Amino acid sequence: MTGAAATAASAEEGAPRRILLVAPNISRRMGGEGLKALQIHLELRALGHDVRQVAHARVREEMAVAYPDLAIDYVEDGPAQIWFHRLKLKPLLALLNAWQLHALARSVARDFRPWVVHFTSPISPVLPYFHMPEQRVVIGPLNGNVAHPPAFKMREPRGKRLGRLILAPMQAVLGRLFRGKRDALLLISGGERTMQALELGGCARAQMVETLDCGIPDALVDHARFVQQGVNHRFVQLGRLTGYKACDLSIRAVAQADPATTLDIIGDGEERDALEALAARLGLADRVRFVGWVPAGPNLYARLSQYRALVLPSLAEANGIAFQEAMVLGLPIVCVDWAGPQQLLGPGEAIMLPPDGEAQVVAGIAAAMDRLARDPAYAESLSRAAHARAAALGFRWRDLLARWLPLYRRAAAGGISS
């Protein structure tokens, strides 16, 4: 390639593009998938691209206040959604919501004429996607197919256990009925277990590209690492209060740890009432505090700097934004050696407990709390190692998206799906 041609190609690669993003939720308050979808939108705009979003109307009020300049088209609930919700027909409701999201995306794409259409959620490799004719489609990052550890199988929701038993035939049927993932030019995948689930649905390995599941905002990546000094008996659990996060194990560990140990629980969710009742029943009301949801930003980071470690014994974490956040801040981590944490952390970078059973994990958390509280040198070694690991993996959203842009170009070069 001549110098002029190389310059032209480079300029073409870096040129602003029209990108249509599709996700049911884009939100800071919803966390998880909603937060990732929002951050992808914001970062692509910051890189100079013309970004348009399709999302559900449930996030309209938040977006109108926080991001009034974003170009968003909203799917509205109709009578069918209301009745499906009232009758608790969740599978039919999910299917109808997905259909309406795709229908609006097709309508918007006809006028917007995007370079690529990127579905940033839902992230499950099982949920259906519909065919998008005449569009270059990227889906992901998909991440899922995460089972509980064998010793914790009885904690798995019944529906999830049943779903795993019928995963292969269900994926085969869904893959034939709903062609979206099979027809996509690229599937951005979070790991091997996700790729296997996609293959069961008829997707080809040639469609798949493995990548990190999520990035971290600049303000957090650039924050000074927390230095671990002195004795510190304060610990924190961070995230949505839902069953698979296993916050009850952390609370039970406080009862076994040094009496000076305290645990602040930052987050909210359906398990909160039961967890508060557990803490009261164990006589820990003055040692376990439920802080509620705290938005990301300086106030949260200042609060996190007060703790000795993040305790998060999640049993089915596909990735784990809270782990990434703790790593970039240098907040030591106590977790279960299973699923998401295994992809992010290694020996000497966290205290990773074997998932051998409830009693063993509770005892392991209590022992970890006691050692970390009294041994600042050990805590500092974990802080430094995890921080270095985060830098090596490249958690910054902009860096992650810079690695995704070639995937967009690959999808565009693949032609129009048919």
TrEMBL record:
Keywords: Glycosyltransferase, Transferase. Pfam families: Glycos_transf_1. The keyword Glycosyltransferase applies. Belongs to the glycosyltransferase group 1 family. Glycosyltransferase 4 subfamily. Gene3D superfamilies: Glycogen Phosphorylase B. InterPro entries: Glyco_trans_1. This is Glycosyl transferase family 1 domain-containing protein. It comes from the Bacteria. Residues 235-386 form the Glycosyl transferase family domain. It comes from Sphingomonas metalli. One of its GO terms (molecular function) is glycosyltransferase activity.
